[in-house]
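Hi R.,

As promised on Friday, here is the backbone we talked about, encoded as structure tokens. Could you run it through your design pipeline when you get a chance and send me back a sequence?
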């Protein structure tokens, strides 16, 4: 009898969670959040979560941490930590995150690798996901994700990513599968101070999401960002401050149905190997 209750409760709670925050489709890092939840063409340590294929485009080893506070509910908050470690043969990515509160929470930990061959970069990662519901049990899953990024010209890039390509389930006690997402996007960098980004994201049972964003650097230490996304309509704003070794990013997002969210990130750049 318990597995039946577990199955029903799990399905309802997971569906509610995805409707509210969709932790698997939400981009990690305040930079991405301030640009309409972009993923595929931003290259930093957050690429471990967002697009493993872009991780090797980083210029130096980096460690990042962040916190997302969504819609005024601590139960929908996410803590994340990631690193991209440059080596002579590519970039190694490590990541860990926690979403939720005491009654419902999800822990994600994993590792990946990305490398560049000419104008193309590719990456793959494996994540271990643990989903826990108070009083009902814990489920464990392995997720495999693949991605790539290509330089179409000196100022234009194309990226594509598939997350959870193996269509893992939340638990052996449920038929509920973790969503599989496909993202594709193009970025255009007309100058060192301006970046224009577009992206499309699709999950099998949901309408496609369209995203557009702009990033502007009025000075060497200040970055301004904005972005919009559809289904549901959302507008985001953000800014960043940085020097040669450290940086801070903040983003504010407004969902037409659910309200506002706040995102904070810190990053530390280390010397090249």
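Update: got your reply. Pasting your designed sequence below so it's all in one thread:
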């Amino acid at each position: 009898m318990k597995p039946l209750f577990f199955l029903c409760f799990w399905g309802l709670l997971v569906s509610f969670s995805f409707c509210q925050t969709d932790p698997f489709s939400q981009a990690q890092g305040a930079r991405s959040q301030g640009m309409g939840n972009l993923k595929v063409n931003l290259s930093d340590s957050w690429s471990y979560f967002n697009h493993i294929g872009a991780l090797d485009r980083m210029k130096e080893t980096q460690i990042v941490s962040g916190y997302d506070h969504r819609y005024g509910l601590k139960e929908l908050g996410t803590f994340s930590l990631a690193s991209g470690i440059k080596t002579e043969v590519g970039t190694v990515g490590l990541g860990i995150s926690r979403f939720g509160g005491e009654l419902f929470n999800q822990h994600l930990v994993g590792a990946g690798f990305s490398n560049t061959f000419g104008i193309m970069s590719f990456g793959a990662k494996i994540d271990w996901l643990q989903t826990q519901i108070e009083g009902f049990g814990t489920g464990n899953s392995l997720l495999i994700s693949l991605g790539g990024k290509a330089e179409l010209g000196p100022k234009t890039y194309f990226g594509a990513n598939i997350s959870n390509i193996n269509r893992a389930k939340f638990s052996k006690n449920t038929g509920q599968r973790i969503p599989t997402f496909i993202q594709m996007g193009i970025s255009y960098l007309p100058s060192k101070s301006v970046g224009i980004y577009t992206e499309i994201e699709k999950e099998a049972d949901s309408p496609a999401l369209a995203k557009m964003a702009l990033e502007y650097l009025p000075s060497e230490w200040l970055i301004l960002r904005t972005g919009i996304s559809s289904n549901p309509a959302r507008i985001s704003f953000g800014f960043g401050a940085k020097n040669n070794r450290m940086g801070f990013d903040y983003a504010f997002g407004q969902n037409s149905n659910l309200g506002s969210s706040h995102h904070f990130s810190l990053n530390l750049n280390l010397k090249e190997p």
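One thing I noticed while checking it: Confidence is low (pLDDT under 50) at residues 1-20.

Thanks again,
M.
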